[in-house]
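Journal club prep, notes for RB
We'll compare a predicted complex against what the paper describes. Inputs for the zinc ion case:
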Amino acid sequence: MHEYGIAEEVARAIIRYSEEHGGAHPRTAWVGLGALSGLDPESLEEAYPIAAKGTAVEDVRLVVRIERAECRCRGCGATLALEGPVDLLLCEQCGSADFECPPHARGTWLTRVELEEGPTNR
Ligand SMILES: [Zn+2]
């Protein structure tokens, strides 16, 4: 399933982060999720322990949040703010489904990692 592939990528990104910070063990990782990624935060949080099982980061607590994104309608120029998971974009003004969205609206990325000796990313 889609969310397991994403969760595996997140686990790899956390491992990389840990290696770049002297191998300190991560405790909590915050993940930004695009509103158009097709996932909701809960399904990614649930997929993570399964996807990360057997790796050095399987016990990391994952906190996933939808990141706000603003898309622009190519039909009439109206902007639409996305604040939660969206399956289908439709312009309320003109009915167009043709939107220009920032790349992060479809992405998944690590926003912060807390390592065992304390937060390092302030
Ligand atoms: Zn429009």
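Talking point for the session: Strands lie at 26-34, 61-67, 69-73, 79-82, 99-100, 108-115, 118-119.
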